[in-house]
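Exam review. A common question shows you a sequence with its structure tokens and asks you to describe the fold in words. Practice with the pair below. Do the first one on your own.
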Amino acid sequence: ALDGTGAKLKLCRDTLQDPARKTYFRQMAAMNFLNETLGQDALQDLLPYLGHDYWRLRELSQKLAVALVPAGGEATLTALFAKTKDAKTAAGVLEVLATAKSAAGLKLAKQAMSHEQPLVRQAAVKAAFDIGGDKMLPDVLAHLQQAKTQEDLRGCEQAILSRRDDPAHVGKTSKAIIAMLPKGSDIVRPSLYYILGQFADPASMAALKKIGASDDMKELEKFIFALSYSPTREADKLLLEIATSGPTRAKLVGAQSVRRMVVGPQGYGDITSSEALDFADAMVRLDLDERLITYIGHIHEARALKTLMYCLRKGVSTAAESLISS
């Protein structure tokens, strides 16, 4: 018969045997017990949870694994990475090594940037930059330039934008991204627009302004979509300039305009009603997008009512509903 500790170990391992089970708090308790009892030997049990879809299980398993890295856990994780066939799990291992700033993790991440699984490559690019910093920027930019999947693009975006608050990084990277624009592939160019829009420094915005004058409507549509996520109010001015250039351009801007009502410097919700209405009032005079008009109805200010009355006079019936809700 198993003694007390042995019985508990078996119970905990049985609890973690099937990651698809939804006994979340039992699973979390099992992780904690195995970690306290076994140390790095618990990594094998934590492994299937490092990339788990449920955030509580993923975050706890990664937190425990990170703490085990300095005591020899990085060698164990590197070996487990080589054996796992599950892309989410492999990505989770890379995230743990990146958080731990593991030297071995950098070597593994660089190798994994050419992994056959796109999700693993995404995690690898971000991990390599998280650990290696500036010296890995050329590798990240090269990966971005030859990207073939959305996962590759997201990994590069996450890596590059993780230091968007560093003016030196922005200046250097913005210059490199602008240089990539003329030769960027169809799948890569929207990411370049997005990164420049997120940087929102003067050089990036100047480059974006030139692109906004394009006569290629399909390309302009991708450009406007990317720019609509920019945290700067300068993007409002650029989008309005594009919309003023003609009805087709106005309709393309109008289709993405509601996003400008919620995006600000610190992300979603970081925008005043006054800023939102500055854009909305100008925009509805160029294109009567119904989603934008509906959103205006959620702003409980007299100025919003005036804008909605304009829309109603222009024959937008939904403006009446927005007036009532405001």
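Now try the second one, then compare your answer with the model answer below.
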Amino acid sequence: SYLSNDRSEISTYIMSSLSDDLLYLIFSYSLPSTLCEPNSPPIIRGDDDSISENSSESSDICISPVNFLLVSRSWYNIIMSQRSLWASLNISLKPINEETSLSLTKALRMLQIWFRNSLNSPLDIQLSISGHRRQGTEIGHILELLLGEQHRWSSVSLDATLCNLTTSIMISTRSLTSISLYFDDCSPAVVPVTIDFCGSSQLRTLELRRGVELVPRGPQTLHLQYLDTLHLHPTANADVLATQQLLMAPSKLRVLEIYLPWSDILPTGTIIFPSLTHLRLASGDSECTQIVNLFGRLECPNLTHFAFQAKRIVSDLQISIDFMLGFENFLSRSRPRL
């Protein structure tokens, strides 16, 4: 027992002797704050009014940085003074099966506490929700809370599957550097998303995948000078204008992934991407008309990686020949370092 006590005293001394800067680095390594349901971490009781609510059912999730708060008063003071420790969240809400309802109260409460304690710190958020068709109201509250803090978004990823989404999404924030949206098998089938690119000019990564209808905010000449990565999954004819604006916007685009449906969504004339190094194309057209047409107009002088995926079986030999000839012409013209 003496040895055990000595070890405990030594550990206590070492931890208490660490500088505030070093402790901050240690706390930072525990981020992002992660909540996964139904496999949530252990629950602890808290007696601090800034963390726990005054109710018999109130409890604190034992996740970072909450799990460090109750160690000592000095640790508490450091964590509450370093607001950026509350600004990185990863929330995943996936019930065991479609018949299982999952309480979203914990996630809503977590967002409220973290947003309050982070004050004006830039937010990095990953939110993944699956299988909540019957809980549209709760999901709406979460999205409204999230959208209400968009003035300090830095990086945001929103992934929803089998959900009812009734909240319209309008994005306009200069602090935003990365946005990823993915809505699969949701209701409605396509979620309108309006992005004011003039107000979000710091964007470096834009990923608009399945289920997103990009609504252009009037005729804009886009100047996305920092845009590095662009993933687009247009929804038939609805995204034609917005897609064309993005592809023609002056940028230093390095990575492009785009799904081409049957309709002609590409800009007319020659399309030049002088900085593009990674290109991935997918087509839902069994005749590959869009892709062959694109090969004739696309120039990527610095391309190093290329991938193509046909979403439908191409069984016609002539179509395959046309595709290969078009691809060969594209390579010989651009002379990329593949």
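Model answer, second protein: The mean pLDDT is 77. The two ends are 66 Å apart (CA to CA). Full marks require stating both points clearly.
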